[in-house]
Design brief:
Elements: E1 4-9, E2 15-21, E3 32-35, H1 46-54, E4 59-63, H2 81-95, E5 100-105, H3 107-118, E6 123-129, H4 137-146, H5 156-167, H6 176-186, E7 187-189, E8 195-197, H7 205-210, H8 220-229, E9 232-237, H9 245-254, E10 259-263, H10 275-286
Parallel strand pairs: 3-4, 3-5, 5-6, 6-9, 9-10
Antiparallel strand pairs: 1-2, 2-4, 7-8
Helix pairs in contact: 2-3, 3-8, 5-6
């Protein structure tokens, strides 16, 4: 589905980017703001954003600062969820959006929790994709290991091989065509014509500075505020190494009204175009204004 390219300005002056999917005809509904994971970008929502827009909601899929077509920060210590959340609030203010439904994958879910703490009235409802207030240290350690790592990529075949290497655990049934498509979401063509990762390597600086504390965040109060006060849906990859079954169980106990779906055979994080995820998201959105 086609989209318009939008830009907005962060509180500290960065030019940030979003894909803006226009809604199909029908009753006015709250827009959806989709926020990607740590090393990813708005391209991850290419399928699900289009489907949601066809269902009658405007979708803004953003590139968080330092990713995709958004500018990179001069100070890498601004690559933190609270700063990202204020960037999103700046988008809402400049776009005239008072409140929205949030769809957050991994880090995008953390940003949604941070945003709820800063301005709770801006969040009408939330979909958390394979993320919670506590995460399994082995999954975060795996992500931290490759984030910002220097790699040598000579061509798109190398890019696809890299995508497979770091994500095969999450998508065991992907074939060559899937990995090529994956690579073209996470890489861009550099000035020399070779693929380069589509994010600032310095996004890893705050993670490394925090050390072990970054691997075991405690966001239970933020999660309770989010899921306890508004409609929410948790999507979990059945084989996720970041959101364990044990943590998921405690989340569901803490927020019994939260809707839940598990995507079998998928790790961290579902792409949300899987039949189970897609059906759950559309059912959830049908119940939100």
């Amino acid at each position: 589905m086609t989209y318009a390219e939008r830009r907005w300005t962060s509180p500290d002056g960065l030019s940030l980017y979003a894909r803006d999917y226009a809604p199909a005809d029908g009753p006015a509904r709250l827009p959806v703001i989709a926020i990607h994971g740590l090393t990813r970008n708005s391209a991850d929502f290419g399928v699900v954003a289009g489907l949601i827009a066809q269902g009658g909601r405007r979708v803004l899929a953003i590139d968080v600062r330092g990713r995709g077509l958004s500018e990179r920060a001069a100070d890498p210590m601004t690559y933190t969820p609270d700063v990202y959340a204020r960037d999103v609030l700046a988008l809402m203010e400049q776009a005239g959006i008072e409140k929205a439904v949030f769809l957050g994958t991994s880090m995008g879910g953390l940003i949604t929790m941070a945003l709820t703490a800063i301005k709770p009235q801006a969040v009408a409802a939330a979909v958390l994709n394979d993320i919670g207030p506590e995460v399994a240290s082995e999954g975060l350690a795996r992500i931290a290991e490759y984030t910002g790592r220097k790699i040598e990529i000579r061509n798109w075949a190398d890019a696809a091989a890299y995508a497979r290497d770091i994500n095969a655990v999450a998508f065991p049934l992907y074939g060559d065509a899937d990995w090529d498509a994956f690579a073209r979401r996470i890489f861009r063509e550099g000035e020399d014509g070779k693929p380069v990762l589509n994010y600032d390597p310095d996004i890893s600086v705050p993670i490394r500075a925090a050390g072990a504390a970054a691997l075991v965040p405690d966001l239970w109060p933020a999660f309770t505020a989010l899921a306890g006060g508004r409609p929410s849906l948790l999507v979990r990859g059945g084989a996720s190494d970041l959101l364990s079954a044990e943590i998921t169980g405690r989340m569901r106990a803490a927020a019994p009204s939260m809707a839940y779906v598990e995507v079998p055979g998928i790790g961290h994080a579902p792409m949300l175009d899987e039949p189970e995820a897609r059906a759950a998201i559309f059912k959830f959105l049908a119940g939100v204004a």
